[in-house]
Design brief:
Elements lengths: L1 E3 L5 H11 L6 H8 L4 E8 L2 E11 L2 E9 L8 H15 L4 E7 L3 H9 L3 E10 L4 E9 L2
Length: 144
């Protein structure tokens, strides 16, 4: 089930972030985001275990999806889709008119997911990612 992230989730979410990203976010950074008035954090929880989390920042009517992480053994089971649904729904209910995100150029599964939500590639940020070095594709969904 998708729900808002709570303080007691931070430890599991920090571990999940380390498993999913070469450049992981620290516990402190995640904690700061959880209490930011601009950010919304969701977790996907099943059997008292967090299998995924996501966050989006909203500023001046625009949303930026900052993270979507799914436990490697739970990928391709619809967890990412449910988290995207929650973020897009939150954005629409908060009068957001556009959402952006960045994704590794090689992450075709994620790009397909984002495209299924109406996102389109608009730019490339060269050498954005490290470990390994890779370009980021900047995607937007406008006119929510």
């Amino acid at each position: 089930m998708i729900r808002l992230m709570k303080t007691q989730d931070l430890e599991q979410v920090a571990e999940l972030d380390q498993l999913c990203f070469a450049e992981s976010w620290s516990y402190r950074l995640l904690e700061a985001g959880l209490y930011s008035p601009y950010d919304i954090y969701y977790v996907f929880e099943q059997e008292n275990r967090i299998f995924g989390y996501c966050c989006m920042r909203i500023l001046a009517g625009e949303g930026e999806i900052q993270r979507i992480a799914v436990l490697p053994g739970k990928r391709c089971l619809g967890v990412g889709r449910k988290m995207m649904e929650a973020m897009v729904s939150h954005a629409i209910s908060n009068q957001v008119y556009a959402i952006s995100l960045e994704v590794r150029e090689s992450n075709l599964a994620a790009r397909k997911l984002y495209e299924s939500f109406g996102f389109g590639a608009e730019a490339v940020r060269r050498g954005y990612y490290h470990s390994p070095q890779e370009d980021a594709v900047i995607m937007w969904r406008r006119g929510l």
